[in-house]
Each structure stands twice: as structure tokens, then as C-alpha cells.
């Protein structure tokens, strides 16, 4: 895989604990981030705590609450074994072996695997688009400016293509920009415009990439098409929400109407 920053998010430099001599601010923030993410999925867990890099009594208690739920020793100390349990969803999303045989099915399977592991952004020190999931999709970048929908799409396509020995960069350049991918699609003749699609729905297939068009050469959001039901598509999208925002909070599965939105479609056929 080309997009492998996620591996850094799975490791601690040293064991971290309250007032520990080997405490590292970045590692403590990783731990606090995963504690907050766990609380999003388990709101009664009382693992949410401030993400400030300070392993104090509140973080210690949050760790103990997590350890209790997981059946681990409740010592408030985070070594690599405890951190592996905290960050297991990220590992599962990126490293669960894919079972499908063709690229389209592999792309859909990979996208499904990610959404099932609950990728979610955090707000850290006033910066949205932050946290381990965002950095994994955006090659270490996070914070307000880093809209991560294309980073998510490319991570999924990279994962699927790599599983069968193909390079996703033969299809598109490594980028975080919807405009770059849209322009690449036009140059290669593999981007179907929404006007064409409305006349021929067969242009849209699972595994393809949708781009919402703001103007002729300006696209603002993207995601993976997982199923097609006539004029309705099911999608899996990063950095979205229940309203379909292009700057939301999570990876989510949605439905979209091809007849009501300006949705262009980038075909992955050249990589097949």
C-alpha cells in the first residue's frame, strides 16, 4: 500500500502513565484521542477526556474505565498491549484481508470494512478534521484546512488495488483534492458528467468514485459508490454527516439521487 501512515498511529514510543518519566506528549494525545473515540461508540463508558497531552488523574481514570470494560488489569497504565486494544478499529480497517476477486468488489469491500470500524474525526484544541483517522487518510496531516473525503477515497482504492498487485496511482495522482481527481478524469476520458449520467444510468457502477459538482471544473465532495438502484446510489463517504456535508465528522453510508444532484462519476475501469 502507498498510503501507510496509519501504521504510525498504531504505535507508542514508550509505555505511558500518570506522571511517567517516559511520557511523550504526542503519545498521550494519541491515547486520549482513542479514549474519546471509544466513548463516541460507547457513550456510557466514561472514557472521554481532554486531549491535551497531559497524562493526569482524569486520563488515568479514563484508561481504568476502558481497561475495566475490556477485562484488562485496571492499573491506568497504557503499554503497547493496551494501546493495541484501544486502536484495534484502525488496524482492522486497514489490515483485514480482503476476500473479493475483482477490483470493483474489492473497493466496495474495503469501504464497507472502514465504515464498520467507525472512522470519526475529533476536535483537538479548536481544530476540527483532527485525530488518528484523519491523519491515516491524509498521510499525517490534520486540522481545520484538511478536508479528508478524498484522502478516505484514495486510501480505500489503494487498499483494494494493492491487494491484487496494482498501483492506484496508475489511475490518479496521490492528492487530497477533488478538483485534481475531477480534472484527471476529464483528461483521461473517464469522468462521466451528471448530464450524461441522467441519460444513461449504466455509466455508474459499484466501486466508482462520485464527485459532487459545484461548477464545471469545481468539485466539492467525493465518496465510493457501493450500490446502484436506477437513479439512486448508495455510497460510503468520508468527512460527511447525515446531511451529506462535505465537511462533516465521520465515514458514513448514505443514499443519493443522481437526478437531483450534480453528481459526476470517475470510473475505476482503467485499473481493472
UniProtKB/TrEMBL annotation:
InterPro entries: Peptidoglycan-bd-like, PGBD-like_sf, PGBDSf. SUPFAM superfamilies: PGBD-like (SSF47090). Residues 26-85 form the Peptidoglycan binding-like domain. It holds the Pfam family PG_binding_1. This is Putative peptidoglycan binding protein. The lineage of its organism: Bacteria, Pseudomonadati, Bacteroidota, Flavobacteriia, Flavobacteriales.
